Amino acid sequence: MSESLIQKYNIAGPRYTSYPTVPYWDKEGILLEDWKRTMQRAFDESNSSEGISLYIHLPFCENLCTFCGCHKRITKRHEVEEPYIDTVLKEWDLYCDILSERPQIKEIHLGGGTPTFFSTDSLKKLINGILKRADRCEEYEFSFEGHPNNTTKEHLEVFYELGFRRNSFGVQDYDPLVQKTINRIQPYERVETATELSREIGFTSISHDLVFGLPHQTKDSIVDTIEKTRQLKPDRIAFYSYAHVPWIKGVGQRGFDENDLPSADEKRVLYETGKQMLHDLGYVEIGMDHFALETDNMHEAMVNKALHRNFMGYTAGKTKLMIGLGMSSISDSWYSFAQNVKEVETYQDMVNRGEFPLLRGHLLSKEDLVIREHILNIMCHFETSWTEERLQFPELKECLERLAEMEQDGLVEVTDTGLKLPEHARPFVRNVCMAFDLRLIRNKPSTRIFSMTI
């Protein structure tokens, strides 16, 4: 990939886990009654046919990783577990009490924070409590994020007994200097043990999260990290670009000197090196930042154009309704978004008073729904079309005009009825989406609020 093109298009832009993106949600937020109405509408339209998804945020970590952009609470006090689990189950009760029928759950994902911070008794209480008021779909997928340092054999066995068959482990990089700088010390042997135990117990899809662009990271460290990954051969790999946004994430991302970060050109070498190595190992690029073996259902979803993207990242199937439980969780009813409050104490106080713990949200307009579908198509399938009248909108011509220069540079192919990105242009997918982002175009930020696109 030409360095001049990278320099030209490497600008700040959204990652498009939603549209509109969170900074462009209505400032007035969403009325609780509007959230309930749209949530119930999505539930009624989809529960019996495709089921619903749950994202459960478990925010506690024993140590602060200085690269992390997640909402978390750092503590070594495990007595916080029980009251938090009790509150999540009370929040679930608030939803179940207003739904028209018993929920059919297609997906549960436990994110964090560190879900394996929690004891196996706490995790059993959580999942069994959820399933007291819901049923599993015939084909369901339960997954969790684990820290290799504290994911025990007992954790894996209990998760398996509860119906979990997919997990992901945060690896980031195996280089000792990088690990020390980001305060994430975990030897290869810990990841190896967690991965091999997962396979022995019966997990069918194991993912490793790798990050490029970290402080002190070099081409040699990327090569070493992927060589070690090759030995374990996880089914999926998330190969993320480190998003340096200390103006948003505060003290955590100011834990090292910014001069220790790779330059934009160096960072691109890290990505291209890693991507080529993954390709050579038999991994297929899925959407943006994700790779999977052809035997994994994520690859099957891509081939069948069933891939979906939401606040959890890419998923192998779509549900119209995703309910987020726990502090800071974001829910998606397709017609609206709603995010919970971000402080543990506020979250627990509101739920224990019988209140939905909403902080903010957004009710999608008709225009939002059309643009959202185009951006989802581009992010998931690297193409979109407007042959159907419902996918046409007045500003379409202007959006395509904004892509004229990218078309001249060979990064997008535009016809009268649609567009697609050639394979070599996939790193520029966020730039293509930005041409359709009407809210961003109409209200360009005066300060930097997004990470760099490439």
What's the rounded overall pLDDT mean?
93
Identify low-pLDDT runs.
Answer: none
- Strand sequence of the main sheet, in spatial order? 9-10-8-7-6-5-4-1-13
From the alpha-carbon coordinates, what is the Rg to the nearest angstrom?
21 Å
Examine the secondary-structure arrangement and name the CATH architecture of the largest domain.
Alpha-Beta Horseshoe
Largest sheet: 9 strands, mixed
Number of strands: 19
Q: Supply the CATH class of the largest domain.
A: Alpha Beta
Cα distance, first to last residue?
11 Å
Report the β-strand fraction as a percent range: 15-25%
* Structural class category: alpha/beta
CATH superfamily descriptor of the largest domain: tm_1862 like domain
- Shape estimate: globular
Helix content: 25-40%
**Helix count from the secondary structure assignment:** 17
| CATH-defined topology of the largest domain | pyruvate-formate lyase- activating enzyme
Tally of individual domains: 2
